[in-house]
Amino acid sequence: MALRRSMEVPAGLAPILLPGERLVTAVRAHWAKLAEPVATATLALAAAVWVDSNVTKSTQAVGTLFWWIFFALLVRLLWRLLEWSHNWFVATDKRLLLRYGLIAHKVAMMPLLKVTDMSYVRSIPGQFLGYGKFVLESAGQDQALREVKWVPNPDQTYRDICAEIFHIVPPRRADDLEEIVGDLPDVHGTHDPIQDRLDSYSRGVPIQRPVNRPETVYESDDLRRRRRGPDTGPIWPGSDDD
């Protein structure tokens, strides 16, 4: 299980986070950590059932022994499952934390400023199942956080922590941009006669200069109307009699 930046802080982690501290990532151990206890308990159950179905009166104690072994392994499996649900590897914008321990709760902490090197190792099973081991080094100190095993999705977790250490802001995704645009108010255009008039001035009409200046220039509608007025002049009634 992994939590990313936009998700809420689990209730179990809230007591160890400082006010205003931002959660970068929080992961539980990979489910492969429980594979061995589950497989062991399953095999013990199969063996107990087989022995119990084939015992005689003289070997009945052997069947009882196998059932007690199964119950012990089942209790061990439940204990490992409770530990798995309680343990967290957490990275914030200030610290790296490891919360562990079922009866005695323990928290190991390393400030991000003191992390001098961070790498992770993925074994062959880890490459197939999707887990890895983080190796952290600080300024000459042997910390409880030196090795963090069974980290799920180690590639993404490694990138998230490194981006926080080096203050790298990830680019916005297309979904985030669509969400931002969708939150903007919907502004519809309105009809403005004055603005329409000003816009009409910018629509120029090409005219041709005389032969001695054969260059094409552009003239707006209003200037063209003004120029034609003085050229033609007013026509008065009765001017033909003159």
Could you characterize the architecture of this molecule?
The chain has 242 residues and is an alpha+beta fold. The protein has a domain at 200-228. The chain contains 7 helices and 10 strands.
Q: Indicate the radius of gyration in whole angstroms.
A: 39 Å
Helix content: 25-40%
- As a percent range, the share of strand residues is 15-25%
Query: How far is the N terminus from the C terminus?
Result: 103 Å
| Spatial strand order of the main sheet | 1-2-3-4-5
- pLDDT under 50 segments (min length 5)? 1-6
Shape: elongated
The chain-level structural class is: alpha+beta
- Name the average pLDDT: 78
**In total, how many beta strands?**
10
| Individual helix count | 7
The major pleated sheet works out as: 5 strands, antiparallel
What pattern of helices and strands is seen along the backbone? Answer: EEHHEEEEHEEHHHEEH
Key attributes of the depicted protein:
242 residues, alpha+beta, elongated
Compact overview of the structure:
This protein is an alpha+beta fold and 242 residues long.
Topology of this protein?
Elements: E1 2-3, E2 23-27, H1 35-54, H2 60-86, E3 88-92, E4 95-100, E5 106-111, E6 115-121, H3 124-129, E7 131-138, E8 147-152, H4 154-165, H5 174-183, H6 193-201, E9 204-208, E10 216-220, H7 221-232
Antiparallel strand pairs: 1-2, 2-3, 3-4, 4-5, 6-7, 7-8, 9-10
